[in-house]
């Protein structure tokens, strides 16, 4: 799988206000439309797609009193996954890895999550995301997302991102098995670059999942009042998922190493077959060359040169020698 970064997109905002017995959706065009919800006790999720409108991001920062350094981390899409705690909110920076329409190119996108007492804000680089399942779960009035706090909602968003790592690993694993079958069947179209492309995909997942595990570990140890005790078991479960992904990565990495060894061994076997064929041909021609060399010398007295059947005899000797060596090599199972 190839790896690419998402292209810049215009900024879009959608708002979900929810509780145990209600769910409201809004398409936000101006930050002034958000202000009324800040003075209510109702929980809401603001999803912002596209980070190019710096003036809009500054308005969001002022509106929610986000620390200026936190906003810099949000706008800088080359951050490592991490967690930062502030007085009235928590910033979670993560990396979302996905593919579009099952193509072979990996998309790596930074997703920043900010949550406070009654709000969750997600900042994405592009409108495309993997949160459709989150939106579907919000439709269920009996689900935990409606009943629990913003810390649990943030957990569900991060859980969707981590679960996507499983999907990527599964896709890479299937590709590795396919390459292994093709190599064993000696498919001539397989190249070493095909194997290293899968290795590159695994390295991209590993580069992001390791700091993600550290970030989740810091979150579950957090003493912030924004993290409720009943949410901690879910955070612990998310941590276990990250550990499991790392273990799967090591298994996949060993599979890649084995695949490279099989590929190189296969090439060596092919080269050995070619060398054996050339050696057999050279061995057959050595005595023929010797005989031809002897009778190609310009001596005055060589009885066979004036013999009536000399030419035919030489050809009989050539053919007899060749057939004898072919039969010998065949019995030795050299070919």
TrEMBL record:
Membrane topology, record value: Multi-pass membrane protein
- Chief subcellular location: membrane
**Pfam families for this protein:** CorA
Catalytic activity line of the entry: Mg(2+)(in) = Mg(2+)(out)
Q: Which GO terms describe its molecular function?
A: cobalt ion binding; cobalt ion transmembrane transporter activity; magnesium ion binding; magnesium ion transmembrane transporter activity
- Give an example GO cellular component term for this record: plasma membrane
UniProt-annotated location(s): Cell membrane; Membrane
Query: What are the transmembrane regions?
Result: 278-297, 309-329
SUPFAM superfamilies for this protein:
CorA soluble domain-like (SSF143865), Magnesium transport protein CorA, transmembrane region (SSF144083)
Listed name of the protein: Magnesium transport protein CorA
Q: Is Ion transport among this UniProt entry's keywords?
A: yes
Q: Which family does it belong to?
A: Belongs to the CorA metal ion transporter (MIT) (TC 1.A.35) family.
What job does the chain carry out?
A: Mediates influx of magnesium ions. Alternates between open and closed states. Activated by low cytoplasmic Mg(2+) levels. Inactive when cytoplasmic Mg(2+) levels are high.
What's the source species for this entry?
Answer: Rhodonellum psychrophilum GCM71 = DSM 17998
Sorted alphabetically, the keyword list is: Cell membrane, Ion transport, Magnesium, Membrane, Transmembrane, Transmembrane helix, Transport
Organism lineage reads as: Bacteria, Pseudomonadati, Bacteroidota, Cytophagia, Cytophagales
């Amino acid at each position: 799988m190839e790896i690419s970064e998402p292209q810049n997109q215009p900024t879009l905002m959608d708002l979900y206000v929810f509780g145990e017995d209600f769910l409201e959706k809004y398409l936000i065009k101006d930050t002034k439309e958000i202000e009324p919800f800040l003075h209510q006790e109702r929980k809401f999720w603001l999803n912002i797609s596209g980070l190019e409108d710096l003036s809009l991001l500054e308005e969001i920062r002022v509106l929610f009193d986000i620390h200026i350094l936190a906003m810099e981390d949000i706008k800088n899409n080359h951050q490592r996954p991490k967690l930062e705690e502030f007085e009235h909110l928590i910033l979670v920076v993560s990396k979302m890895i996905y593919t579009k329409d099952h193509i072979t190119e990996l998309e790596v996108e930074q997703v920043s999550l900010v949550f406070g007492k009654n709000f969750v804000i997600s900042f994405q680089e592009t409108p495309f995301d993997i949160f459709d399942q989150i939106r579907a779960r919000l439709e269920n009035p009996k689900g935990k997302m409606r009943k629990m706090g913003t810390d649990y909602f943030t957990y569900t968003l991060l859980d969707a991102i981590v679960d996507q790592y499983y999907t990527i690993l599964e896709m890479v694993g299937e590709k590795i098995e396919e390459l292994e079958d093709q190599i064993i069947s000696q498919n001539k179209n397989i190249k070493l670059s095909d194997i290293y492309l899968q290795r590159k995909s695994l390295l991209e997942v590993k580069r992001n999942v390791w700091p993600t595990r550290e970030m989740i570990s810091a979150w579950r140890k957090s003493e912030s009042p924004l993290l409720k005790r009943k949410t901690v078991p879910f955070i612990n479960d998310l941590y276990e998922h990250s550990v499991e992904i790392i273990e799967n990565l090591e298994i996949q990495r060993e599979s890649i190493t084995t695949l490279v060894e099989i590929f190189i061994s296969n090439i060596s076997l092919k080269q050995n077959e070619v060398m054996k064929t050339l050696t057999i041909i050279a061995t057959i021609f050595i005595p023929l060359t010797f005989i031809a060399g002897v009778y190609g010398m310009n001596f005055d007295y060589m009885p066979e040169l004036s013999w009536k059947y000399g030419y035919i005899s030489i050809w009989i000797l050539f053919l007899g020698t060749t057939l004898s060596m072919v039969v010998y090599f065949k019995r030795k199972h050299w070919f």
